[in-house]
Amino acid sequence: MLTRQYLLSSRPMHTMRIAVLDDHPVIALGTAAYLRSQSDFKVELEETSGDAFAEALARRPCDTAVLDFYLPEAAADGFYFLKRMRRLFPELVIVTFSAGKASEIEYAAYRAGASAFLPKSAPLALLGDAIRLASATPSRFFALREGRIVEVQPRSAADQLSASEVEVLRHIATGLSVTQVAERLNRSKKTVSTHKRSAMSKLGMVDDLSLALFLKEKFDQGHHLSAEVL
User: Fold this and answer.
1) Measured between alpha carbons, how far is 194 from 182 in angstroms, rounded to an integer?
2) According to the model, what pLDDT value does residue 106 have?
3) What's the CA gap between 168 and 191, in Å, rounded?
4) Which of 80, 180, 194, 217 has its CA 20 to 30 A from that of 35?
C-alpha cells in the first residue's frame, strides 16, 4: 500500500502543466477547478470537444492530460482516442477516468498506453494522487485499489476464463448451440451450459446477444479461430 508520505515524496519539484478533457461541461469545470486548487498543478487547457483537444494541446504543450474515456460526440473515443494521443504526444502522461465499467476500461486504458485509470466515482483527491504518481513514474500503470492509488498490471477479463470455458466459447463462436457443443465435445448439455454461464459471468455478459457480439469481435472465424485465448 502506498502511504501519504510516499505520495508527497513522489511529487515532482516543478509545477505540472495539465490539460483536461471531458465532454460534460460541468465535470470538466469541476475537475479543472479542483486541479487548480493544488499548488503543484497548473491547468493550461480545459476542453469539452475531443476533436479539438489534440489541436489545442499542440498549441499549448502540457505534461499531463486528464481524459474522459468515453467521448461519444468525437470522431474517435475510448481505446482509439487514447492510442491517437499516445502517438501524437509520446511524452505526455495520460490519466483517464470514466463512469463506465471499471474493470473493462482499466484494461483498455492500460493497453492503449495510459499511465493511470480512475473511476469518476472516486474522490478528486485520488485523481491528484494518480497524476502525481503517474508523472513520477510514467512507465508504470496506476489504478484504484481499496481506496488507494497503487501500481497494478491490469488483466483482461478473458484471462480469467478456464480452459474448458474457452473451449466452449470457441465452439459457440462458430454458431453451434449448447446442445450441439455438448454433442461435439461428448459432454452433457448441463456441463456445457454451466461453462457458458460461468464464462459470461466472468466477462460481465448479461445475455446471449452481448456474448455473441463479444465473440464476433474476439474470435477470427475466417481462420478457424485463433489458438490464442481470446
Assistant:
1) 11
2) 87
3) 10
4) 80
CA distance readout (Å), 7 to 3, 127, 180, 220: 6, 12, 56, 44
49 vs 206: CA distance, rounded Å: 32
Among the four given CATH numbers 1.20.1250.20, 1.10.10.10, 1.10.600.10, 3.90.180.10, the one describing domain 157-223: 1.10.10.10
Cell 493511470 locates to 116
- List pLDDT tens digits, range 82-111: 999 999 999 999 999 988 777 778 888 888
Question: Residue 152: phi, psi to the nearest 5?
Answer: -140, 165
Burial of residue 120 (number of CB atoms within 10 Å: 0-12, 13-18, 19+):
middle
Query: Residues 20, 131: contact at Cβ < 8 Å?
Result: no
Residues 6+ apart with CB under 8 A from 40: 11, 12, 15, 16, 132
Residue stretches of the chain with pLDDT short of 70:
1-13, 157, 204, 206, 219-230
Entry pTM: 0.67
Q: What's the topology of domain 4-151?
A: Rossmann fold (3.40.50)
- Specify the pLDDT at position 153: 85
Is the distance from CB of 100 to CB of 70 less than 8 angstroms?
Answer: yes
CA atoms lying within 13 Å on the CB side of residue 28: 20
Contact 66, 43 (CB under 8 A): no
Rounded distance between C-alpha atoms, residue 228 and residue 207, angstroms: 24
